[in-house]
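Problem 12. The chain below contains 173 residues. Write out its predicted structure in token notation.
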Amino acid sequence: MAMTAIAVMAALTGCGGSDSVDAAGGRATTTARAAEKAARDEVTVDAVRGDVRSAAAAAGIGRLGFLDTSKAGTPCRVLGFLRTEDVPKREAVDSVSAVLKARGWGQMEQIPAEDADQAWHLVKNGWEMFLGAGKVPEGAGIVFDASGEACGVPMPSRPATSDIAPPEPPVLP
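Solution.
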């Protein structure tokens, strides 16, 4: 009787193995599910640029431009400038931060800034962004400076030379 109860509880709670059955009846391992989740959560340079474009459009002011950082040896960086004639109003900056938050940029921490300038630090899946709004000698506007640990591009590697030898280090594209 006790063994039957343990077997029923193990079956109901999913204990007793790392495999689970999905709705279609297929088996998926915990590792495979984690890999699928990582692929869904992966943030690419293009995705970050898309977030910046959406946020800039929400502000409804200025002209957005990006600096090409791939040639500077920093391929996992997005640097965008929303240039405006005057210092962006608080409402425009609030709409930018609301769009970024809706697109998954969290842990918004306001950073002390000079005068009427505003600045925040944001985080999204291994990426960090500095969002600044105000006036600088070059003009006024909003700056988006994001950098990430991974660009969303898998690093190719050579196959192992034998079954027991580890693969060689990744080769940069």
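Discussion. The longest strand covers residues 127-136. Students who got a different answer should revisit the alignment rule from Section 12.3.
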